[in-house]
What we know:
62% helix, Ribosomal Protein S5, domain 2
Amino acid sequence: MFSMTGYGKGSASTDGREMTVELKSVNHRYLDVGMRLPRHLAFLEEPIRSALTNRLSRGHVDVFVNYRNLRSDARTVEIDAPLLAAFVAAARQANEALCLQDDLSLTAALRLPDVSNVREADENSDALLGLLNAAIKGAIDALLVMRKQEGDRLSVYLGNCADTVESLTNQIAARAPVVVEEYRIKLNERITQLLGNVEVDRARLATEVALFADKASIDEEITRLHSHLAALRELLVDQEPVGRKLDFVVQEMNREFNTIGSKANDGELTKLVLTGKAEIEKIREQVQNIE
């Protein structure tokens, strides 16, 4: 089981080129990718998206790419000779008109605005794509390791929560027959108190108790809860993405507790139901972060 929270970093270098890819992911209903790339590497967006789609199914992933070209031919310097000539001509005219000392040198001339320009050389697309494939593979590998570690911790936590819910379910199942018996005793006591020594139709009394027992029966809900808990535990050890399945199972568990709560005519049962719903809410909150 994998969490959707994690971080991974991968780097690759060859022939004077270096690329680093960083991935940061958080929970999201679907796979959502946000990219931060230098403008001249925009053509790598689709390969990045494809690499992530092949190995991730859910989560918001931010992608950061840093690239350095240390080759000697990575940059060229261009000098605008006509503009430089115009500057020199203008400087000489000013010198003649104002009788200023001419201290213009080549070094000073190259500092003039727009005379020189450093131009990035055209990149080798195939070389960059090879670097990206190596770097992003390492980044995704590292991200999945962290997501797996977090997923294992969540699995243990959710397993403990499931044990608590199962314990509460068993307590509810044990308490339900007692509630019916207590109802029978209370009903008999009230009739005796109201009618005194008048003979009571025991068959009618039994019918009333049976109707109450049928109305308050939670046997089906208890059976389904045990089935949902078994499904939850199976999903916790599944290595495939199970977030959506877990979310469905948790919804069904909550539905069963709501039904039991609506049938509960007993303070102790109500207390157990509220405790169970609180535990299911803990599970639901953590399930939102599972891939």
